[in-house]
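Do me a favour: review this protein, sequence plus structure tokens, and tell me how the chain folds. Record follows.
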Amino acid sequence: MRFMTIYKPGVDQETAGPPSEKRMAEMGAFINEMAAAGVLLATDGLQASSKGARVKLVDGDFVVTDGPFAETKELIAGYAIVNVASKDEAIHWTKRFLALMGEGESEIRLMHDFAAFDGEEARQVGAAANR
């Protein structure tokens, strides 16, 4: 099953600055461990919201807002996509990541995948994809 973990650091990313060399080395070792275990499919960090934009569709019109955004403590700072046997295993790896970071929270979301559906749901999804 594939899960996306979405990391929110709990600190203002606009002023936090880059991670220390020690943190980068620890994160590199952790990423290598996950890759060697065969669970890590993709991961990356995101730069400050001041370098981004939000695009909304409101009543048929697009609204573009350049960053930085309010509530910077709630912004996504990174993600990982893992391929694991269960939500419990995704939680295990996420706890290890958060312990390494020392702060923040991660949301874990099951991705759409045939393995995420029971037998009947998988057949319906497959049939819809083949139309």
